[in-house]
Design a protein that fits this description.
Pfam families: CbiX. By secondary structure, the protein is α/β, with parallel strands linked by helices. The protein is built from four helices and four strands, in the order βαβαβαβα.
Length: 128
Amino acid sequence: MAEGVILLGHGSRRAEANEEIRQISRMVADLNPGLYETAFLSFCSPNLAEAVVKLKQAGAVKIIITPIFLANGNHIALDIPEEIEGLKSDFPDVEFLVADHIGPDPGVAEIVKERIVQARAKMSAKAV
């Protein structure tokens, strides 16, 4: 039973922002090889349904949708679940699972701490 993973970003009008989500997807795939697609809710493609089609064509019958979102806003609480309900109707032979959003995680806190340290170093370098 083949499993696929969709890393779902918000999407942006800025191509550079969308590329960062694609970079994260590639990093995840490097850590854990398998069937991966990147999708976006808005502004660019592929959208969620298009990514499902690609994974299904690759043989996936179980798809884990992993939202790359920090907070439990309306997209996490309402929009994504609603869209997945539609996908279940469109693809009744596919099992959909939704991973938790990133949220308040110790790993995120560690990254924020690192960014603060980097900012302090930049400030110190400018002062010299």
